[in-house]
Specification:
The chain has 9 helices and 2 strands, in the order αββαααααααα. The longest helix is centred in the middle third of the chain and has 33 residues.
Length: 242
């Protein structure tokens, strides 16, 4: 149960203080009969993780506000393994958005041109393009961090943790679907705001995961975005609708 999971994570040294990012042996001490006491960090003398008493909605709101403490709680002190599924779902949302825009821009109303299989192929193509762009973005981030701070990514677990953080912090892409469904004159502006929000979240995830200042995560995000835009330009030169 909960106690077994806590002991297992403590044995792996997985806990972090959400305030100072130092390792912690435990998040709380269980005195039985429902009596719990939050552990105090030996370094900063603050509660190791105050969010263990918070409602998930409050934690989500703090994460949306890009608070470093909320990110540390989610990444280090919880057992969340939805990053892979979340990444795939975000790509599906982006592919669906592009597919809708492609269908909307088509001027040909010939019924023979609207065959179901042709539309299905367009969606798969958009999913593939979105996947390649996302891969380029992540590759740009990893290359920048590896070049600037190679000691930060020494082991496979370091790469996996950062990848998990980047995928989880891309949850803002889920807003793409409502932005398209509730289409209005300001949809392009909404999409731009969603893109900026995702980039800010990615930067905060890098900062929290690697315990860096603000400058290097932003450099990594900008280089990743540049590489992603380079892939887009390449597709456009090949005559593909992206």
């Amino acid at each position: 149960g909960r106690g077994v999971l806590s002991r297992a994570m403590a044995a792996l040294g997985a806990y972090r203080c959400i305030e100072c990012n130092r390792e912690a042996a435990e998040l709380y001490r269980d005195y039985q009969r429902g009596v719990l006491r939050i552990s105090i960090c030996k370094s900063c003398q603050k509660p190791v993780d105050k969010y263990i008493e918070y409602d998930p909605v409050i934690i989500l709101i703090n994460a949306v506000l890009c608070k470093a403490q909320a990110y540390r709680h989610i990444l280090f002190n919880t057992k969340i393994n939805i990053h892979g599924k979340l990444g795939i779902f975000c790509l599906l949302c982006e592919a669906y958005l592009r597919w809708l825009q492609l269908q909307g821009s088509s001027q040909n109303t010939d019924p023979d041109d609207l065959i179901r299989y042709a539309k299905e192929w367009d969606f798969y193509r958009m999913f593939g393009i979105a996947s390649l762009e996302q891969t380029s973005f992540l590759l740009g981030i990893f290359l920048t961090l590896w070049w600037m701070r190679p000691e930060m990514l020494k082991t496979k677990s370091d790469f996996i943790l950062l990848l998990k953080a980047l995928l989880l912090s891309s949850y803002g892409k889920l807003l793409l679907i409502p932005a398209v469904i509730w289409e209005h004159d300001y949809t392009p502006l909404c999409l731009a705001f969603i893109k900026v929000f995702v980039l800010i979240s990615n930067s905060q995830a890098i900062r929290v995961t690697l315990n860096l200042n603000r400058m290097l995560p932003w450099l990594a995000v900008i280089f990743g975005l540049t590489l992603e835009n380079g892939v887009v330009c390449l597709f456009q030169k090949m005559g593909w609708d992206v």
